[in-house]
Amino acid sequence: MKKISSKAGIIIFYIFDALLLLILLFAFLPFSKKKEGPQKETLSFLKEEDVKQIKSISIKKNDKKIKLFLRGSIWLGKDWNFDAGAAADFIWPADTQSVSNLIEIAAKRQDIFLLSTKNSSWENYQLKKDDAIELSFFADEKEEEPLLSLFFGKRNLLASRIAFRSWEDSNVYECYWAIENYLNLDSNFWADPFLYPQCLTHYSRNQSESLLRHGNLVNLSPAKHLIPDLILSKDFENGSSASFAIYKKDASYVVIPSFKASPVFSDEDVKALQDISYRYSVSSVTLERFKEDLK
Question: What's the whole-model pTM score?
Answer without folding.
Answer: 0.84
